[in-house]
UniProtKB/TrEMBL annotation:
Span of domain N-acetyltransferase: 112-242
UniProt source species: Priestia taiwanensis
Lineage summary: Bacteria, Bacillati, Bacillota, Bacilli, Bacillales
Cited PROSITE patterns: GNAT
Protein name, entry field: Acetyltransferase
Sample GO molecular function, one term: acyltransferase activity, transferring groups other than amino-acyl groups
Length: 242
């Protein structure tokens, strides 16, 4: 796995290793975990070292038709999902700061006109939202009432914003970021992501950056921000009725 903190490794290890091992080899593991939440009753994690782990509930094991000791591979597993009509949502990349990069981040001074936003910035933030497309707002999921919000300004205008919300039962904070179309390519997104990540680290949280595999711009931003790819994570689709 990537050189990230034990907090992150332990968080991801738990659901994929807690339970009965259905199948395991050097690169592929399937575990039956009866304690998974309903919206995560099937999960797949492929780490950056190309190892794939699957965890699923006993009900889904029965639905898909898996048995202890049967020969499996990722390809066979996905074929069985398809045959059973079980759909996955679509994988996200997972990015985190390595321990080395975190040490750099916590000591640096963030450049530009970047600051934390509060409820007092409601008018400024509303103007920012009004200048963004509905699609960008939905994709970014940046909200002023989230746990932490930072903005980057140009000539006193809010042109980029990022917000975070902690995950339940984990010292991990998920972030979203949005830059207005006319101000992209100027480093605003990189600065606000590093600023909010520095804030999260000071509060004891691991910043988490997620994006869809086909979102090249978001992937490029993650790398430019200094984040390290941890892996790809997928869960059962809400459209699956099982």
């Amino acid at each position: 796995m990537a050189v990230v903190s034990e907090t992150i490794i332990d968080f991801w290890r738990k659901p994929f290793l807690d339970g009965e091992v259905l199948y395991r080899n050097e690169v592929f593991t399937v575990v039956v975990n009866p304690n998974l939440d309903e919206d995560r009753r099937v999960m797949v994690l492929e780490t950056s070292d190309n190892k794939v782990m699957v965890t699923l509930t006993p009900t889904m094991v029965e639905k898909i038709g898996l048995e202890i000791g049967q020969e499996l591979s990722e390809g066979i597993f996905r074929q069985k999902l398809n045959e059973a009509g079980v759909m996955l949502h679509g994988a996200d990349f997972l990015f985190y700061f390595s321990e080395e990069d975190k040490n750099v981040l916590v000591q640096e001074e963030i450049e530009g006109e970047v600051r934390q936003l509060t409820a007092q910035d409601n008018t400024v933030f509303s103007q920012f939202e009004g200048a963004a497309s509905e699609q960008d707002l939905d994709d970014a999921y940046v909200e002023l009432d989230h746990w932490a919000v930072f903005g980057s300004f140009e000539q006193k205008r809010l042109v980029a914003a990022t917000s975070m919300y902690p995950w339940q039962d984990a010292q991990i904070a998920d972030l979203g970021v949005l830059t207005l179309q006319a101000f992209r390519g100027k480093g605003h997104a990189r600065r606000v992501v590093r600023a909010i990540s520095k804030y999260a680290l000071a509060k004891g949280y691991e910043p988490q950056y997620r994006c869809q595999l086909d979102n090249e711009a978001s992937t490029a931003l993650a790398k430019a921000t200094g984040l390290t790819l941890f892996g790809k994570w997928d869960v059962i689709s809400p459209d699956s009725v099982y």
